[in-house]
Amino acid sequence: MARVVYHTSTPLAVSVTLFARWGSSLGIWGFGAGTAALFLLSVTPLVKRELLVKLPLLGRYYEDNTPASDKPF
Predict the structure, then answer these.
(1) Which member of 22, 25, 52, 58 has the greatest number of CB atoms within 10 A?
(2) How far is CA 40 from CA 17, 18, 25, 35, 72, in A?
(3) Residue 62 has what pLDDT?
């Protein structure tokens, strides 16, 4: 006959186990979602002015060099 044996574990051990199992996958998906959101929002002036221009390597690409006389608003 089979015998049921319960192993007690602390909440910390359960958290460590879950993080070890899902952490890398969630990190990769989060990085991908953040990159996609940044790519899709890169055309908005707020994201371009407040975030993309301040990046060290890509900032010059997103700078607005249009003269003030050529801007419609």
Answers:
(1) 52
(2) 35, 32, 23, 9, 23
(3) 86
